[in-house]
Amino acid sequence: MKRRLAQALSKVHARIHAYEERERAPQLGALGQGSVVANPNFFLHPERLFVGAKTYVHPYCRLECITENPHLEGPPLEGNARIEIGDRVVINSFTHIGAMRRIVLGNDVGIASGVCIEDHHYIYEDATDERPLKKQGFRVADVIIEDGCMIGEHAVILPGVTIGRNSWVGANAVVTQDVPPYSIAAGIPAKVIRRMDPATGEWRRAQA
Ligand SMILES: CC(C)(COP(=O)(O)OP(=O)(O)OC[C@H]1O[C@@H](n2cnc3c(N)ncnc32)[C@H](O)[C@@H]1OP(=O)(O)O)[C@@H](O)C(=O)NCCC(=O)NCCS
Q1: What is the CATH classification number for the domain harbouring 115?
Q2: Cα 119 to ligand 1 centre (Å)
Q3: Is there a contact between 169 and 154 (Cβ–Cβ < 8 Å)?
Q4: Ligand 1 mean position to 205 CA, how many Å?
Q5: Which of 36, 71, 91, 182 has the greatest number of CB atoms lying within 10 Å of its CB?
Q6: Distance CA 119, CA 53 (A)
Q7: Which residue of 193, 195, 204 sits with most ligand 1 atoms within 8 Å of its CB, as the best mutation to test the pocket?
Q8: What angle do CA 73, 79, 81 make, to 5 degrees?
Q9: Is 6 inside any structural domain?
Q10: Which residue has a Cα nearest atom 14 of ligand 1?
Q11: Does residue 14 belong to any structural domain of this protein?
Protein backbone atom coordinates (compact mmCIF):
# COMPACT_ATOMS: atom_id res chain seq x y z
CA MET A 1 0.00 0.00 0.00
CA LYS A 2 2.77 2.42 1.07
CA ARG A 3 4.75 1.54 -2.05
CA ARG A 4 1.79 2.22 -4.33
CA LEU A 5 1.18 5.55 -2.63
CA ALA A 6 4.85 6.48 -3.04
CA GLN A 7 4.73 5.50 -6.71
CA ALA A 8 1.57 7.55 -7.27
CA LEU A 9 3.10 10.57 -5.51
CA SER A 10 6.26 10.22 -7.51
CA LYS A 11 4.22 10.25 -10.77
CA VAL A 12 2.33 13.34 -9.65
CA HIS A 13 5.60 15.02 -8.71
CA ALA A 14 7.09 14.20 -12.14
CA ARG A 15 4.01 15.67 -13.87
CA ILE A 16 4.17 18.87 -11.82
CA HIS A 17 7.88 19.17 -12.55
CA ALA A 18 7.29 18.68 -16.30
CA TYR A 19 4.46 21.23 -16.24
CA GLU A 20 6.61 23.81 -14.42
CA GLU A 21 9.50 23.30 -16.82
CA ARG A 22 7.18 23.72 -19.83
CA GLU A 23 5.82 26.93 -18.38
CA ARG A 24 9.34 28.28 -17.88
CA ALA A 25 10.64 27.21 -21.30
CA PRO A 26 11.10 30.00 -23.82
CA GLN A 27 8.83 30.20 -26.85
CA LEU A 28 10.14 27.36 -28.97
CA GLY A 29 9.15 26.76 -32.60
CA ALA A 30 7.47 23.57 -31.35
CA LEU A 31 7.40 21.60 -28.13
CA GLY A 32 5.62 18.27 -28.47
CA GLN A 33 3.34 16.62 -25.97
CA GLY A 34 5.16 15.40 -22.86
CA SER A 35 8.48 17.06 -23.74
CA VAL A 36 10.58 18.99 -21.27
CA VAL A 37 13.28 21.52 -22.04
CA ALA A 38 14.69 22.05 -18.57
CA ASN A 39 16.08 25.24 -17.11
CA PRO A 40 18.53 26.82 -17.25
CA ASN A 41 19.57 26.49 -20.86
CA PHE A 42 21.11 29.02 -23.21
CA PHE A 43 19.09 29.63 -26.38
CA LEU A 44 19.72 31.67 -29.46
CA HIS A 45 16.53 32.05 -31.49
CA PRO A 46 14.50 29.42 -29.60
CA GLU A 47 11.66 30.00 -32.06
CA ARG A 48 13.80 28.14 -34.60
CA LEU A 49 14.10 25.08 -32.37
CA PHE A 50 11.50 22.37 -33.06
CA VAL A 51 11.14 19.64 -30.44
CA GLY A 52 9.02 16.51 -30.87
CA ALA A 53 7.07 14.59 -28.23
CA LYS A 54 8.35 12.94 -25.03
CA THR A 55 11.78 14.47 -25.46
CA TYR A 56 13.90 15.61 -22.51
CA VAL A 57 16.57 18.30 -22.75
CA HIS A 58 18.53 18.48 -19.51
CA PRO A 59 19.70 21.82 -18.08
CA TYR A 60 22.91 23.66 -18.98
CA CYS A 61 22.80 23.02 -22.71
CA ARG A 62 23.60 25.61 -25.36
CA LEU A 63 21.15 25.47 -28.24
CA GLU A 64 21.85 28.05 -30.88
CA CYS A 65 20.22 28.88 -34.18
CA ILE A 66 22.65 31.43 -35.51
CA THR A 67 21.01 33.77 -38.01
CA GLU A 68 23.19 36.77 -37.54
CA ASN A 69 26.28 37.43 -35.52
CA PRO A 70 27.25 41.05 -35.13
CA HIS A 71 30.26 40.13 -32.98
CA LEU A 72 31.97 38.31 -35.82
CA GLU A 73 31.85 41.21 -38.29
CA GLY A 74 32.22 38.65 -41.09
CA PRO A 75 30.12 38.14 -44.22
CA PRO A 76 26.33 37.95 -43.71
CA LEU A 77 24.89 34.59 -42.67
CA GLU A 78 22.12 32.66 -44.48
CA GLY A 79 19.66 33.58 -41.74
CA ASN A 80 17.56 30.40 -41.96
CA ALA A 81 19.09 28.28 -39.18
CA ARG A 82 16.99 25.62 -37.52
CA ILE A 83 17.37 22.71 -35.14
CA GLU A 84 14.90 19.82 -35.42
CA ILE A 85 14.72 17.34 -32.56
CA GLY A 86 12.53 14.25 -32.86
CA ASP A 87 10.39 12.28 -30.43
CA ARG A 88 11.72 10.54 -27.30
CA VAL A 89 15.15 12.15 -27.63
CA VAL A 90 17.32 12.71 -24.55
CA ILE A 91 19.96 15.43 -24.54
CA ASN A 92 22.18 15.51 -21.49
CA SER A 93 23.72 18.56 -19.85
CA PHE A 94 26.54 20.70 -21.26
CA THR A 95 25.72 19.73 -24.81
CA HIS A 96 26.21 22.41 -27.44
CA ILE A 97 24.20 22.34 -30.66
CA GLY A 98 25.03 25.20 -32.99
CA ALA A 99 23.15 25.53 -36.29
CA MET A 100 23.70 28.05 -39.05
CA ARG A 101 21.54 26.07 -41.49
CA ARG A 102 20.06 22.79 -40.23
CA ILE A 103 20.77 20.17 -37.61
CA VAL A 104 18.38 17.24 -37.31
CA LEU A 105 18.20 14.71 -34.49
CA GLY A 106 15.83 11.87 -35.42
CA ASN A 107 13.55 9.98 -33.09
CA ASP A 108 14.91 8.05 -30.09
CA VAL A 109 18.36 9.64 -30.30
CA GLY A 110 20.46 9.75 -27.11
CA ILE A 111 23.00 12.51 -26.64
CA ALA A 112 25.36 12.11 -23.66
CA SER A 113 26.85 15.03 -21.73
CA GLY A 114 29.18 17.64 -23.18
CA VAL A 115 28.55 16.71 -26.81
CA CYS A 116 29.18 19.32 -29.51
CA ILE A 117 27.21 19.26 -32.78
CA GLU A 118 27.85 22.01 -35.30
CA ASP A 119 26.86 22.50 -38.94
CA HIS A 120 29.42 25.22 -39.60
CA HIS A 121 33.06 26.01 -39.17
CA TYR A 122 35.40 28.79 -40.14
CA ILE A 123 36.74 28.79 -43.66
CA TYR A 124 40.49 28.57 -43.28
CA GLU A 125 41.86 27.96 -46.74
CA ASP A 126 44.05 30.88 -47.66
CA ALA A 127 47.09 31.33 -45.44
CA THR A 128 47.80 34.66 -47.13
CA ASP A 129 44.48 35.96 -45.81
CA GLU A 130 45.62 37.90 -42.78
CA ARG A 131 42.13 38.60 -41.49
CA PRO A 132 41.20 36.95 -38.21
CA LEU A 133 39.37 33.67 -38.74
CA LYS A 134 36.12 35.09 -37.45
CA LYS A 135 36.04 37.51 -40.37
CA GLN A 136 36.74 34.92 -43.09
CA GLY A 137 33.26 33.40 -43.19
CA PHE A 138 31.94 29.89 -42.67
CA ARG A 139 31.52 26.58 -44.42
CA VAL A 140 28.01 25.37 -43.65
CA ALA A 141 26.56 21.88 -44.21
CA ASP A 142 23.58 20.08 -42.64
CA VAL A 143 24.15 17.56 -39.87
CA ILE A 144 21.73 14.64 -39.66
CA ILE A 145 21.67 12.15 -36.80
CA GLU A 146 19.22 9.47 -37.80
CA ASP A 147 16.72 7.61 -35.61
CA GLY A 148 17.98 5.50 -32.73
CA CYS A 149 21.59 6.77 -32.59
CA MET A 150 23.57 7.13 -29.38
CA ILE A 151 26.25 9.82 -29.16
CA GLY A 152 28.84 9.19 -26.40
CA GLU A 153 30.19 11.61 -23.81
CA HIS A 154 32.04 14.64 -25.20
CA ALA A 155 31.84 13.54 -28.80
CA VAL A 156 32.11 16.23 -31.48
CA ILE A 157 30.06 15.99 -34.69
CA LEU A 158 31.32 18.22 -37.48
CA PRO A 159 29.52 19.95 -40.38
CA GLY A 160 28.09 17.84 -43.19
CA VAL A 161 28.07 14.60 -41.21
CA THR A 162 25.20 12.10 -41.37
CA ILE A 163 25.14 9.42 -38.72
CA GLY A 164 23.11 6.48 -39.97
CA ARG A 165 20.26 4.87 -38.12
CA ASN A 166 20.97 3.03 -34.82
CA SER A 167 24.66 3.86 -34.86
CA TRP A 168 26.76 4.51 -31.82
CA VAL A 169 29.45 7.18 -31.60
CA GLY A 170 32.06 6.50 -28.90
CA ALA A 171 33.01 8.81 -26.07
CA ASN A 172 35.35 11.66 -27.10
CA ALA A 173 35.10 10.84 -30.79
CA VAL A 174 35.52 13.59 -33.36
CA VAL A 175 33.27 12.66 -36.27
CA THR A 176 34.51 14.20 -39.51
CA GLN A 177 32.76 11.88 -41.99
CA ASP A 178 29.45 10.05 -42.37
CA VAL A 179 28.90 7.01 -40.18
CA PRO A 180 26.92 4.25 -41.91
CA PRO A 181 23.80 2.83 -40.24
CA TYR A 182 24.16 0.06 -37.63
CA SER A 183 27.79 0.94 -36.88
CA ILE A 184 29.99 1.85 -33.94
CA ALA A 185 32.46 4.66 -34.65
CA ALA A 186 35.16 5.82 -32.25
CA GLY A 187 38.39 7.80 -32.04
CA ILE A 188 39.84 10.97 -33.52
CA PRO A 189 39.04 11.19 -36.33
CA ALA A 190 36.23 8.71 -35.77
CA LYS A 191 36.53 5.40 -37.60
CA VAL A 192 33.99 2.61 -37.80
CA ILE A 193 35.18 -0.14 -35.43
CA ARG A 194 32.20 -2.46 -35.77
CA ARG A 195 29.23 -2.87 -38.09
CA MET A 196 26.14 -4.88 -37.59
CA ASP A 197 24.97 -7.17 -40.34
CA PRO A 198 21.26 -6.29 -40.54
CA ALA A 199 20.51 -9.69 -42.12
CA THR A 200 21.92 -11.75 -39.23
CA GLY A 201 22.01 -9.17 -36.42
CA GLU A 202 25.66 -10.05 -35.80
CA TRP A 203 28.33 -7.47 -35.05
CA ARG A 204 31.42 -7.63 -37.20
CA ARG A 205 34.72 -5.89 -36.61
CA ALA A 206 35.47 -3.37 -39.33
CA GLN A 207 38.44 -4.25 -41.54
CA ALA A 208 41.59 -2.29 -40.61
C1 LIG B 1 32.51 3.11 -28.66
C2 LIG B 1 31.99 2.09 -27.65
C3 LIG B 1 30.46 2.00 -27.77
C4 LIG B 1 32.64 0.77 -28.09
O5 LIG B 1 32.26 -0.24 -27.23
P6 LIG B 1 32.68 -1.77 -27.60
O7 LIG B 1 32.01 -2.19 -28.85
O8 LIG B 1 32.42 -2.56 -26.38
O9 LIG B 1 34.19 -1.63 -27.96
P10 LIG B 1 35.47 -2.37 -27.34
O11 LIG B 1 35.65 -1.99 -25.92
O12 LIG B 1 35.38 -3.83 -27.69
O13 LIG B 1 36.63 -1.69 -28.18
C14 LIG B 1 36.84 -1.96 -29.57
C15 LIG B 1 38.02 -1.11 -30.01
O16 LIG B 1 37.66 0.27 -30.05
C17 LIG B 1 38.44 1.07 -29.16
N18 LIG B 1 37.56 2.01 -28.51
C19 LIG B 1 36.46 1.74 -27.78
N20 LIG B 1 35.88 2.87 -27.37
C21 LIG B 1 36.64 3.88 -27.83
C22 LIG B 1 36.55 5.29 -27.72
N23 LIG B 1 35.55 5.88 -27.08
N24 LIG B 1 37.49 6.02 -28.33
C25 LIG B 1 38.50 5.43 -29.01
N26 LIG B 1 38.63 4.11 -29.14
C27 LIG B 1 37.71 3.33 -28.57
C28 LIG B 1 39.04 0.04 -28.19
O29 LIG B 1 40.25 0.49 -27.66
C30 LIG B 1 39.20 -1.17 -29.07
O31 LIG B 1 40.36 -1.00 -29.86
P32 LIG B 1 41.24 -2.27 -30.34
O33 LIG B 1 40.34 -3.10 -31.24
O34 LIG B 1 42.40 -1.65 -31.07
O35 LIG B 1 41.62 -3.01 -29.10
C36 LIG B 1 32.34 2.46 -26.19
O37 LIG B 1 33.70 2.25 -25.93
C38 LIG B 1 32.02 3.93 -25.85
O39 LIG B 1 32.80 4.85 -26.06
N40 LIG B 1 30.80 4.12 -25.36
C41 LIG B 1 30.26 5.44 -25.01
C42 LIG B 1 30.02 5.54 -23.51
C43 LIG B 1 29.26 6.79 -23.19
O44 LIG B 1 29.62 7.88 -23.56
N45 LIG B 1 28.17 6.61 -22.48
C46 LIG B 1 27.30 7.72 -22.11
C47 LIG B 1 25.89 7.34 -22.46
S48 LIG B 1 24.75 8.53 -21.83
Answers
A1: 2.160.10.10
A2: 25
A3: no
A4: 12
A5: 91
A6: 24
A7: 193
A8: 115
A9: no
A10: 193
A11: no
DSSP string covering 134-164: GGS-EEE--EEE-TT-EE-TT-EE-TT-EE-
Q: In this structure, which amino acid lies at residue 189?
A: P
* Distance in Å, CA 153 to ligand 1 centroid: 11
- Cα-atom radius of gyration of the chain, to the nearest Å? 19
At residue 29's C-alpha, the angle toward residues 25 and 32, to 5°, is 70
Nearest residue to 61 (alpha-carbon basis) of 85, 73, 43, 82: 43
In a domain, 40, yes or no: yes
Structural domain of 181:
28-205
| Predicted pLDDT of residue 185 | 98
Does 141 map to a domain?
yes
Tens digit of pLDDT per residue, the chain (208 long)?
A: 777 877 877 777 777 666 666 665 668 999 999 999 998 889 999 999 999 999 999 999 999 999 987 666 677 788 899 999 999 999 999 999 999 999 999 999 999 999 999 999 988 888 888 888 877 888 999 999 999 999 999 999 999 999 999 999 999 999 999 999 999 999 999 999 999 887 888 888 886 5
Q: How far is the CA of 170 from the centre of ligand 1 (A)?
A: 6
Split into its structural domains, the chain has a count of: 1
This prediction has a pTM of: 0.88
186 C-alpha to center of ligand 1: Å?
6
